[in-house]
């Protein structure tokens, strides 16, 4: 099984913030709440939104414990996780057949056909885990022999001032004049 761990993700991917005052909005064609089990199941065109984060899927299961919302499981063909660009992080587009968020461990897991795009970087594998607090990405290929290897394409760091300065290109910048 191929395994690759990267601590280079360009910016944080925050997932859903259970400590935020921003509400989590859920829309779907059908909803079923099992209050005793602490589980809500949404099916058909499910859209979950909190601030700049959204999740779209065919089916989503939300789990609650004494602390509140503890786990989100999303299934789709694919399920889509998106986070809009903010001043702290670039836009993120992540897709997989199954997406899981575990609030206690701050872990986002993308299973089966996972592709995550952020700031030109691409992370692809059968299993991609993102530890949101430590900003560590782990990617693995599937267990079958014909499973493709993991793939990560990481863009080089871009310089802050990529433009050239004509006053210094010819060696006649301010320090060279006299």
Automatic annotation (TrEMBL):
<keyword id="KW-0732">Signal</keyword>
<dbReference type="InterPro" id="IPR005653">
    <property type="entry name" value="OstA-like_N"/>
</dbReference>
<dbReference type="GO" id="GO:0001530">
    <property type="term" value="F:lipopolysaccharide binding"/>
</dbReference>
<dbReference type="GO" id="GO:0009279">
    <property type="term" value="C:cell outer membrane"/>
</dbReference>
<feature type="domain" description="Organic solvent tolerance-like N-terminal">
    <location>
        <begin position="26"/>
        <end position="134"/>
    </location>
</feature>
<dbReference type="GO" id="GO:0017089">
    <property type="term" value="F:glycolipid transfer activity"/>
</dbReference>
<comment type="subunit">
    <text>Component of the lipopolysaccharide transport and assembly complex.</text>
</comment>
<feature type="compositionally biased region" description="Polar residues">
    <location>
        <begin position="157"/>
        <end position="167"/>
    </location>
</feature>
<dbReference type="GO" id="GO:0015920">
    <property type="term" value="P:lipopolysaccharide transport"/>
</dbReference>
<dbReference type="InterPro" id="IPR052037">
    <property type="entry name" value="LPS_export_LptA"/>
</dbReference>
<dbReference type="Pfam" id="PF03968">
    <property type="entry name" value="LptD_N"/>
</dbReference>
<comment type="similarity">
    <text>Belongs to the LptA family.</text>
</comment>
<keyword id="KW-0813">Transport</keyword>
<dbReference type="GO" id="GO:0043165">
    <property type="term" value="P:Gram-negative-bacterium-type cell outer membrane assembly"/>
</dbReference>
<dbReference type="InterPro" id="IPR014340">
    <property type="entry name" value="LptA"/>
</dbReference>
<feature type="region of interest" description="Disordered">
    <location>
        <begin position="139"/>
        <end position="178"/>
    </location>
</feature>
<keyword id="KW-0574">Periplasm</keyword>
<protein>
    <recommendedName>
        <fullName>Lipopolysaccharide export system protein LptA</fullName>
    </recommendedName>
</protein>
<feature type="signal peptide">
    <location>
        <begin position="1"/>
        <end position="15"/>
    </location>
</feature>
<comment type="function">
    <text>Involved in the assembly of lipopolysaccharide (LPS). Required for the translocation of LPS from the inner membrane to the outer membrane. May form a bridge between the inner membrane and the outer membrane, via interactions with LptC and LptD, thereby facilitating LPS transfer across the periplasm.</text>
</comment>
<dbReference type="GO" id="GO:0030288">
    <property type="term" value="C:outer membrane-bounded periplasmic space"/>
</dbReference>
């Amino acid at each position: 099984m191929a395994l690759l761990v990267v601590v280079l993700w360009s910016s944080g991917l925050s997932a859903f913030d259970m400590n935020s005052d921003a509400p989590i909005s859920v829309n779907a064609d059908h909803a079923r709440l099992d209050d005793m089990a602490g589980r809500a199941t949404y099916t058909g065109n499910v859209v979950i939104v909190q601030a700049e984060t959204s999740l779209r899927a065919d089916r989503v299961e939300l789990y609650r414990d004494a602390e509140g919302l503890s786990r989100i499981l999303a299934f789709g063909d694919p399920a889509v996780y998106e986070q809009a660009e903010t001043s702290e992080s670039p836009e993120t587009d992540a897709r997989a057949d199954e997406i899981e968020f575990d609030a206690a461990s701050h872990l986002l897991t993308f299973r089966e056909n996972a592709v995550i795009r952020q700031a030109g970087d691409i992370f692809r594998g059968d299993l991609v885990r993102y530890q949101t607090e430590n900003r560590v990405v782990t990617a693995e290929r599937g267990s079958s022999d014909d499973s493709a290897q993991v793939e990560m394409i990481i863009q080089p760091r871009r310089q802050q001032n990529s433009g050239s300065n004509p006053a210094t290109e010819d060696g006649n910048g301010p320090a060279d004049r006299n």
